[in-house]
Amino acid sequence: MPCPEPIRTPSAGEGGYPGANLRKPEVTKLRPIFKDFTLLKQKASQQLFDCLDQLAEGCLVVDQDVRVVMISDRYAANLGVKPEDVLGREIETFLPNSLMRQVVVTGKPILLEIFETPTHTLVVSRMPIREEDGQVVGAMAFALYSDLEALKPFMDRFSQLQADLDHAHRKLAEARRSKYTFSSYIGNSPGTMEAKRLARRAALVHAPVMLLGETGTGKELLAHAIHAGGPRVERPFVTVNVAAIPEALLEAEFFGVAPGAYTGADRKPRPGKFEVADGGTLFLDELADMPLALQAKLLRVLQDQEFEPLGSNRVIRVDVRIIAATSRDLEAMVAEGLFRKDLFYRLNVLTIPLPSLRERISDLDLLCEHLLEKIGHAFGTVGRDLSPAAFDLLRRHPWPGNVRELENALERAMLNSDADTLVPADFPGLQRSARVPAPAPPRPATLAGVEEEAGRRALAAALEASHGNRAEAARRLGIGRTTFYRRLRRNRV
Ligand SMILES: Nc1ncnc2c1ncn2[C@@H]1O[C@H](COP(=O)(O)OP(=O)(O)OP(=O)(O)O)[C@@H](O)[C@H]1O
Ligand SMILES: [Mg+2]
């Protein structure tokens, strides 16, 4: 039967279209249609079926036992079977992955699905057939397309969205990837080599790692390298700086928040760092600053590898490798009751002490060469050299801020000088600490001069007090990092 004319609804101009024309429809004219409502519905159903059958690549009807009652020739051809061979048979006997039984059993339609047959890829819609009382007595399926060309615009859009999503995932993974490898940990003194050897071994196992060392000795660098050198390299590397997060927020940061956990607070669930790091590494930086209550919770998570987000009773299982770091004497803190003994033992499995720069001063030339090149690269200029006297000055400095302080001293010297070779005068801070009297600054004559000089001294003092750590120095002065850098340059500190 040819596909019938679509059922027309009278348009606004023809009158009687509710809403479009506020004139009341003439009820008497409608009465004959409503009288034959059941008949009309039957007609509509029949025509809809015929129409779909015509438009589609074929149709199929099964009874409540999922036996084939009707199959169109085209559908049979698409499925690679003959109608007479399959009529009366349960559908799975010739289409093992058919979903018709699901539709009959659940009574729920599956409106659009890509279905692979031995010969074709079809887009299929399946609907239950019901008795008047709602009981399911069978199901019908229409193969809407037998080639996906017709769906190309949708598919293209879908592929584009999928590609965008993959790209975003890759970017996120890159951001969470390690910044350093073992080759970034420069030096060949015995202390450096031993630290590297231990770290390489630690990379290959799952046990927790504890990195101990003064500030600026490369704990974060080695944590990245351990992650990058092990089997979790493709998974996230996630850092929690325990000291940088207010105590009240730490628990949420670690374990996440269920939706609506705080009344009035943001209602969206927020995953914790443990969940984000699943399959990868969680780096607990400044571990010693962790409050005792959270230490207890962390210990439980490390033992069970599972936890509940704040405000939820959903248990999340994770597989996370822990690397912890601290510059404080954890053993002394345990003795004083400031750090839990059980957590200390749990984390102190593979302990890697990192030597201070004083203890490995023989690495100074390799470090300077590496850092001068690195800074030059960051500034977009070539690296510089050190004069023998400048090198000697650096060698005699005690470096309480270790490699970070060295890096900052070299960076400041490079900013202050245009010459190819850096000389002792380019390291005024170090000259003072080496007790070589620095030349007295000329007495400022103007207010601007006085302010300039005061600013310069404040910057230098803050830098010294924070062992060359600029973020820390900026914090001490109560200014942002960018302002701090600008002032450093302007005041030629
Ligand atoms: N052996 C090394 N070779 C090259 N660069 C290093 C080395 N050790 C440290 N650095 C550099 O020094 C800086 C400080 O290192 P890092 O942040 O890893 O120190 P840290 O021990 O975590 O310090 P803190 O305790 O203050 O957080 C970084 O820029 C790092 O690249
Ligand atoms: Mg650090």
Quick structural gist:
This protein has helices spanning 27-35, 37-55, 73-79, 83-86, 100-106, 152-175, 190-203, 219-228, 247-255, 273-276, 292-304, 330-335, 341-347, 364-379, 388-396, 402-416, 428-433, 447-465, 470-477, 481-490; strands at 59-63, 68-71, 110-116, 121-130, 136-145, 209-212, 237-241, 256-257, 270-271, 281-285, 306-307, 316-317, 321-326, 350-353, 385-386, 421-422. It has 493 residues and is of the alpha/beta class. Helix 14 (364-379) crosses helix 16.
What does this entry look like structurally?
There is one protein chain. The chain has 493 residues and is α/β, with parallel strands linked by helices. The chain is built from 20 helices and 16 strands. The strands form 5 sheets. The protein has a 5-stranded antiparallel β-sheet with strand order 2-1-5-4-3, with helices on both faces. A 5-stranded parallel β-sheet has the order 7-10-13-6-14. Strand 4 and strand 5 (136-145) form a beta hairpin. Helix 19 packs across helix 20. The radius of gyration is 37 Å and the shape is elongated. The chain binds adenosine-5'-triphosphate (ATP) and magnesium ion (MG). Adenosine-5'-triphosphate is lined by residues 184-187, 213, 215-221, 327, 370, 403-404, 407.
